[in-house]
Amino acid sequence: MFSNVIVKKPGKSYVEGLTTSDLGTPNYEELLVQHEAYVEALKTCGVEVTYLEADEAFPDSTFVEDTAVLTKDFAVVSNPGAASRNGEIVEMEQVLKGLYEKIYYIESPGTLDGGDVLQADNTFYIGISERTNQQGAEQLKAILEKEDYVAHIVPLKEFFHLKTGIAYLGDNKMVLAGEFVEDELFSSYDKIVIPKEDEYSANCILVNDFVIIPAGYPATKQKIEQAGYSVIELPMSEFQKQDGGLSCLSLRF
Ligand code: CIR
After folding, report:
1. What pTM, to 2 d.p., does this model score?
2. Into how many domains does the chain fold?
3. Does the model's ipTM exceed the 0.85 cut?
4. Sign of dihedral through CA atoms 213, 217, 221, 223?
5. pLDDT tens digit string along 179-229?
6. d(CA 252, CA 27)
7. Measured from the CB, is residue 17 less than 6 Å from ligand 1?
8. What is the 123 CA–ligand 1 centroid distance (Å)?
9. Which ligand 1 atom sits nearest the alpha carbon of residue 80?
């Protein structure tokens, strides 16, 4: 169960953020409506929301997930791999100091984006990507093992971040897309497989009694409902334009 989340309002500079997609320029008004709906959905899931104000200096900073890895007992401040995003950790460190007694850090030359880290019960999966390098992944693995978790490093082939293509729903159920579907590392899970055309919906989040998924993926909705979950659908178009998904918009703990 999660009792807290951290979110951050997108600033007007969001439209100048990093992206590899060709889906067009985000509409800021629409973006704010979608962000508000996201925050409301989290409240529906029963969590306390720490709401950070927008910071125009960091266009991508609404994607707070990349700045930290959180558990119940400790926080890890990440070291984001994109130069324009690295300074986002300064504010997040201050916020986390108010919430946690035990804080670890990923240190250069190690880089790590929180979007490359997935927790499934006592096991963590750490992707190596354009943003997370081997040293960053090994630093996090060492921290997690010291804290009695199991950690596996997963070199990514195609996905942007690890969680672009995978989500854990608890109860041994794993949502998997693309390169992860046949990966031996995930063979022991009960798989919910997302086909190529619905790949964006593999980035969904379990928040207490609900699974939040992007709107527009009826097949994914059906599969997750069949697995026994209540689903909340949210419009995500303006976040998708900047390569962001549902998990990226919050830190949950
Ligand atoms: C970036 O390129 O960093 C942002 N435009 C998107 C970050 C998405 N974050 C995530 O998948 N955890």
Report:
1. 0.97
2. 1
3. yes
4. negative
5. 999 999 999 999 999 999 999 999 999 999 999 999 999 999 999 999 999
6. 27
7. yes
8. 23
9. 3
d(CA 42, CA 60): 20
**Cis ω before 155 (30° cut-off from 0):** no
Residue 204 annotated as catalytic: no
Q: Which of 6, 23, 62, 66 to mutate to test the pocket of ligand 1 (most atoms within 8 A of CB)?
A: 66
Give the residue numbers spanning the domain of 137: 4-252
**What residue's CA is closest to ligand 1, atom 12?**
115
pLDDT band with cut points at 50, 70 and 90 for residue 9: very high
CATH code of the domain containing 57: 3.75.10.10
